[in-house]
Amino acid sequence: MMSFFRNKFLVWSCTFAMTFVAASSLAYASDKPDPSGTRTGTIMDVPASRPGSPTLQELGDAVGHNHVAVNFVWTLVTGFLVMFMQAGFALVETGLTRAKNAAHTMAMNFMIYPMGMLGFYLCGFAFMFGGVGSLGTLGGYSGLSHELTVSLFGKSFGLLGWSGFLLKGTGYDVGVFALFLFQMVFMDTTATIPTGAAAERWKFSAFMIYGVFIGSVMYPLFGNWVWGGGWLSQLGVNFGLGHGHVDFAGSSVVHMQGGVIALIFAWLIGPRYGKYNKDGSVNPIQPHSIPMALLGTFILAFGWFGFNPGSTLAGTDLRISVVAVNTMLASATGALAAALWMWWFRTKKPDPSMMANGMLAGLVAITAPSAFVSAGGASIIGLISGVLVVESVFFFDRIKIDDPVGAISVHGVNGAWGCLSIGLFADGTYGDGWNGVPGTVKGLFYGGGLGQLAAEVIGVVTCFVTVSILSIAVFKFAEALVGNRVSHESELEGLDVPEMGVAGYNGFDMDKVSETLHPRS
After folding, report:
1. What is the mean pLDDT of each run of 10 residues along the chain (521 residues)?
2. Would you say 248 and 308 are in contact if contact means Cβ atoms under 8 Å apart?
3. Beta bridge partners of 135
């Protein structure tokens, strides 16, 4: 009989403890950092139970710590997947450019990782997340609470975080470190996008200057406004525009930012020599390795399973299955739409490079709405992105914006489309309380009205304007310091030896290869 009541007591105790853990704010509710990780996930002190039985404190600590540990492991492992996407970007960009520039293009994709990371470590993370508040899924730590704000129209507008510099002081906490790793690799994705658009004529020294600015200033500013508690995230609370600017995994914060920087840099640096004929017609410059580009695309698609589902920051959030499947479907419909559009309406051939860009466009577009839409909605979003990327590539070619890999179209155009699609296709099954607004996220087609769509439009326009201004400033600074474009002779020879001191490929005559792939006009 005693054992029966003891077992009932244990069940009741576990249930009681779980109610504490379910509300993450009660799990380690403190603004003091926990660098050892021993307190993260534990509950507040509660009275002891009868002698000889486990206390609620012990039960709660065990359950809470394990609950948060699951989220930690999920966040870190998905961050590792996103880090591996850097290999995919390197292969795609190198494959879609010419053999004489292979070492240079690979080197840019390699070095942006340490350069951007160090800038993010020094101050970028603090600018972006220094005022984010409680890290709910990662233990509830609330030490990152200093947001620089201004007051307008009687409302508070967050502009920039101001704590967690160098991961010291309030930043020396296990939850903060988990968040830093995951967000750093997201920043790196943004940082590497412009290396494709300005490939084959960008000075490596100028690229290095950009690498410092992207992680420290350029990326964190808009990122704070959307993910760090800044003013765009509060459009719902302050002005009743849905849930504010919603971007689940980074269509605007990551991809559109990278696409806008790519657009400004490609425009200011000018087209590659021989890209346009004297009459203004386009002279296509052929990629040197389609197999390399397609392999890189598959690596990126694989890494996207960290990118989108990982953005829950919680392995305990079972919506991750919906996010993952939506990601798959959009990538498939994007690839199919691009291939068929090229085949039927453009070149009468399916074009493998456009298949790859179609898949990437679908992945970019579904990044923002992946948690908020149904499988059908994800498929439609991907189909539209596949057509958009093709038409966008031809559009930028016509206006003489030379983008060797289609980065502007894949990331910029479809990053904007992905955010706008939330305002249309969000089906109201997820996102209760998102950005502090009660209720789930609903788009126009599901009875949500125009508020959510308006918030997405405001975010997209803000991203374009702000990032364009920052990009022009950084480009002009590098131009004054070292110059952005390589010499005419270096561009004709290929950047590998003049810029890097080593050829990407050895054992054959690169001059002949270059002349074959790109006859001089």
Report:
1. 50 46 46 80 55 66 86 98 98 98 98 98 98 95 96 93 97 97 98 98 98 98 98 97 98 98 98 92 94 98 98 97 98 98 96 97 98 98 98 96 98 98 98 97 97 98 98 98 97 96 80 51 44
2. yes
3. 141
Do 51 and 75 fall into the same domain? no
Q: In this structure, are 350 and 462 located in the same domain?
A: yes
Q: Residue 151: enclosing H or E segment and its boundaries?
A: strand 147-152
Distance CA 465, CA 149 (A): 20
Is 18 found in the same domain as 90? no
274/487 Cα distance (integer angstroms): 14
pLDDT of residue 71: 96
- Tell me whether residue 414 is in a domain: yes
Q: For the CA atoms of 371, 377, 382, 383, what is the dihedral angle to 10 degrees?
A: 180
- Whether 169 and 71 map to the same domain: the answer is yes
Q: Report, in angstroms and rounded to the nearest whole number, the Rg of the chain calculated over CA atoms.
A: 25
Picking from 65, 83, 105, the residue at the C-terminal end of a domain is: 65
The domain total for the chain is 2
pLDDT at 45: 45
H helix or E strand, kind and range, residue 6: helix 2-22
| Residues 31 and 150 occupy one common structural domain | no
User: Comparing C-alpha atoms, which of 120, 127, 119 is closest to residue 144?
Assistant: 127
Q: Which structural domain range is residue 202 located in?
A: 66-500
| 506 within a domain of the structure (yes/no) | no
Which positions ≥6 away from 278 have C-beta within 8 Å?
521
pLDDT of residue 9: 46
